[in-house]
């Protein structure tokens, strides 16, 4: 399974590849009134930029205009009125208020957009406050929860546009033999060009039942992708950018970062509101309320709310980020929402459009970047019709690659709106690109950086490239070369292996693992493998069972103190797993292993058994794992699948049974372990990560099989470890640990003059561990006096970190300052430490 971190790596590399692309502003809308009496004016000719031919003649006071080229200026002309001109930008293009004057003033070059904030002594004097109070009293819920059953259709379109391409850019050497792509670009009045580079269309049917049991089903009916359709990382990253939002929630989720909602009940703590007008929205009279953040340094939006004057329902809303948005790789976000309101208590989504302007380097508006635009249309709502139970069961056809194949005639009738000229050109252009060797080489480089594997021939990848070099006290410099089979993103089987060599111990190591999936629906899978390698035990409590799971031994190039506590492990494992229910996995592992110290002179794993002194632990055990990921979403259907970013929790319950005598194993034992992990959004205050683990060894086992409270002697940040603990400092039969880490997203530092310009973000954390170790477990080990558990009091650490360190839009460095809270009298106790690392996230 590709982790969220891997997707973040993928996003970074994709951004670096197509950083030269930038989206144009090609739409504008607003209202035209008489400057003297404020009455709406129709019959106005609207000219785009410096064109002499009107692009639109209005039939009412409202106007909406679109162009295939960038709009940077609009001119308004009507007989008996002076010519008015309005500059258009990415943040000033919608809900414009244009006032035409009957005075013949030829010197007027622009009009003033009346968006100024009215000053009130207190919010109770603000008419917008009274309106918002009525909205909160009538807070609506999604109407889908009201009906016994429901069905509806969803059409989703995701497009990446590369714009602002000038002649100097097009003449770069990288485009030699690729210059035909500019035939599909659109020239603009500013001498730039706009080029679509990715388009994905999807149609889903939604089914839901609220009574007697709550069930939902999202069925993919058809999907059409152009641009990188065979590149798993780019397609998944496109989908992974977006979250569904509810304007009535107090917190809106973008990139798993919480933004305060302007319709939330605590909106007045973040926003100023100003009632500017009453307008007609789809035949309904609505209050037009402008809102903007009280402080521009916070993560918040600005825009307009359109509130029904009778029912106080939200008919439409626009949300735009401020110019000072502090999100990595992001220059701007904008969302337009439309709702239907069937009654006084509920709403139904009608249309959502979200644009995200991305660039890894510069925050400047002139910087080249990409616009990722997602539009979703909801239609064909139907309620309280009987739905068969079989409709909610998973079917094999849903996981067939050919299940979504549809011809062009289907798409013509299925789309709510026809494709634009640019969008139609995407399919043709990318078909030609994929026949171009140079483009495929560029694409291959991107895929290599994002997936960490290099494809050498059909079906064979070398990697991961990030594991080629490592270093530790036992092996010294270490070289690792690996490979895997890879025929496509939905492979039902995979084989992976590696070889490694340590130049200090002059020993070869290896590992190989194979997996095969019989059924895509319930993901019934078997696998097995074997390895001989140097491993750092004691850095995870709820460990992964795979042969090729991370070993940690070669990941520490710089460390505090000497680390000789490495183990030499010979392991053979077999497993089977199945998902009887969605996002719930049952896995059974059988493992045979021998463990001994990789450095006997510096680290002892010797123990007594029946009075005999032994240096190697022989272990055979069976592990049953129950893994739940409620709410998680995945792409692809092969042995490896790729997770979309969500706030889904991870819940793991594991039982391990050691079997004495099986393959010469030394011990019978029983172990039970539990883990709970959950990210939680706390509104404008940021995001908290919770990680709780607990476990118990019910029998006496030697150090190699014990629970080690995870230490971290490296100078890097390792999640869910204790920064100031040495390896093997605490050993426990019974344990519980809790890690709480809160990211404030700059909430506090944004108040500090000068510092706030650096756009740094603050992190606070506290970690605790408690456990016990029996006398029998101490005495079985040769160095019995060396090991103890945190049983006198809860061991704890605390500290803070500074993240978002970097330049431009690349702010991926983090520094943590850690303090040890107690057990300070221990030999070699580290009371304070600084850790640093990279975070590839928004």
TrEMBL record:
Signal peptide stretch: 1-24
Pfam families for the chain? CarbopepD_reg_2, DUF5686
Q: Which domain of life is it from?
A: Bacteria
The answer on whether this UniProt entry bears the keyword Isomerase reads no
Spell out the Gene3D superfamilies in the cross-references.
Carboxypeptidase-like, regulatory domain, Lipoprotein localisation LolA/LolB/LppX
InterPro entries found in the cross-reference section: CarboxyPept-like_regulatory, DUF5686
| UniProt key word Signal | yes
Alphabetical keyword list? Signal
User: What is the protein named?
Assistant: DUF5686 and carboxypeptidase regulatory-like domain-containing protein
């Amino acid at each position: 399974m590709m982790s969220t971190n891997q997707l973040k790596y993928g996003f970074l590399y994709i951004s670096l590849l197509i950083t030269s692309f930038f989206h144009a502003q090609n739409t504008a809308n607003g209202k035209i009134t008489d400057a003297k009496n404020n009455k709406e004016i129709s019959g106005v000719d609207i000219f785009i930029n410096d064109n002499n031919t009107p692009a639109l003649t209005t039939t009412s006071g409202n106007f909406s205009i679109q162009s295939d080229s960038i709009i940077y200026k609009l001119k308004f002309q009507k007989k008996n009125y002076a010519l008015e001109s309005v500059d258009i930008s990415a943040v000033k293009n919608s809900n414009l208020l244009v006032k035409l004057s009957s005075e013949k003033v030829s010197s007027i070059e622009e009009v003033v957009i009346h968006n100024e904030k009215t000053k009130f002594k207190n919010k109770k004097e603000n008419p917008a406050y009274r309106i918002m109070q009525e909205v909160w009293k009538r807070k609506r819920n999604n109407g889908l929860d009201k009906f016994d059953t429901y069905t509806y259709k969803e059409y989703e379109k995701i497009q990446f546009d590369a714009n602002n391409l000038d002649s100097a850019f097009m003449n770069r050497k990288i485009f030699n033999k690729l210059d035909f792509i500019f035939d599909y670009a659109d020239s603009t009045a500013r001498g730039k060009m706009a080029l679509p580079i990715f388009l994905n269309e999807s149609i889903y049917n939604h089914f839901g039942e609220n009574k007697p049991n709550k069930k939902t089903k999202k069925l993919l009916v058809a999907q059409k992708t152009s641009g990188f359709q065979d590149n798993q990382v780019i397609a998944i990253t496109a989908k992974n950018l977006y979250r569904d939002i509810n304007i009535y929630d107090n917190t809106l989720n973008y990139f798993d970062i919480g933004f305060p909602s302007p319709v939330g009940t605590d909106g007045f703590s973040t926003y100023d509101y100003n009632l500017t007008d009453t307008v007609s929205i789809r035949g309904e009279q609505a209050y037009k309320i402008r809102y903007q953040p009280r402080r521009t340094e916070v993560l918040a939006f600005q825009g307009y709310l359109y509130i029904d004057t009778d029912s106080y329902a939200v008919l439409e809303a626009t949300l735009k980020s401020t110019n000072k948005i502090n999100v990595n790789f992001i220059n701007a976000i904008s969302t337009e929402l439309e709702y239907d309101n069937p009654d006084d208590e509920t709403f139904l989504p009608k249309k959502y459009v979200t644009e995200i302007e991305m660039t890894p380097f510069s925050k400047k508006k002139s910087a080249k970047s990409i616009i990722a635009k997602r539009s979703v249309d909801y239609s064909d709502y139907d309620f309280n019709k009987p739905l068969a139970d079989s409709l909610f069961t998973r079917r094999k056809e849903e996981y067939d690659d050919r299940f979504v194949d549809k011809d062009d005639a289907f798409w013509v009738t299925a789309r709510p709106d026809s494709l634009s000229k640019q969008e139609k050109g995407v399919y043709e252009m990318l078909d030609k690109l994929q026949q171009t060797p140079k483009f495929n080489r560029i694409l291959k480089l991107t895929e290599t950086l994002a997936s960490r594997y290099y494809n050498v021939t059909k079906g064979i990848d070398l990697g991961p490239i990030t594991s080629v070099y490592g270093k530790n006290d036992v092996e010294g410099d270490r070289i690792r070369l690996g490979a895997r089979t890879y025929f496509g993103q939905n492979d039902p089987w995979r084989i992976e292996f590696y070889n490694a060599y340590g130049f200090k111990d002059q020993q070869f190591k290896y590992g190989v693992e194979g997996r095969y999936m019989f059924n895509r629906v319930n993901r019934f899978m078997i696998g097995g493998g074997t390895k001989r390698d140097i491993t750092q035990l004691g850095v995870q409590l709820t460990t992964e069972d795979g042969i090729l799971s991370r070993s940690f031994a070669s990941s520490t190039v710089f460390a505090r103190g000497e680390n000789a506590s490495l183990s030499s492990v010979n392991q053979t494992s077999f497993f089977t797993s199945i998902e009887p229910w969605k996002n719930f996995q049952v896995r059974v592992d059988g493992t045979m292993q021998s463990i001994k110290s990789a450095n006997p002179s510096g680290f002892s794993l010797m123990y007594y058994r029946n009075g005999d002194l032994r240096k190697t632990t022989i272990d055979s055990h069976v592990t049953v794992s129950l893994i739940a990921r409620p709410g998680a979403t995945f792409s692809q259907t092969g042995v490896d699948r790729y997770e979309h970013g969500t706030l889904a929790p991870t819940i793991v319950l594991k039982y391990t049974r050691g079997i004495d005598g099986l393959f010469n194993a030394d011990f019978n034992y029983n172990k039970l372990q539990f883990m709970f992990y959950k990210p939680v959004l706390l509104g404008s205050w940021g995001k908290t990560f919770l990680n709780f683990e607990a476990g118990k060894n019910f029998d006496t086992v030697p150090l190699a099989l014990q629970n080690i409270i995870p230490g971290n002697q490296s100078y890097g940040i390792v999640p869910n470890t204790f920064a100031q603990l040495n390896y093997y400092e605490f050993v426990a039969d019974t344990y519980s640990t809790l890690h709480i880490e809160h990211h404030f997203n700059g909430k506090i530092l944004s108040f500090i003059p000068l510092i706030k310009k650096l756009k740094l973000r603050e992190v606070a954390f506290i970690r605790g561990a408690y456990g016990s170790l029996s006398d029998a477990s101490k005495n079985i080990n040769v160095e019995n006096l060396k090991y103890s558990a945190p049983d006198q009091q809860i061991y704890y650490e605390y500290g803070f970190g500074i993240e978002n360190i970097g330049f431009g839009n690349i702010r991926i460095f983090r520094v943590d300052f850690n303090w040890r809270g107690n057990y300070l009298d221990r030999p070699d106790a580290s009371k304070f430490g600084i850790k640093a690392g990279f975070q590839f996230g928004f």
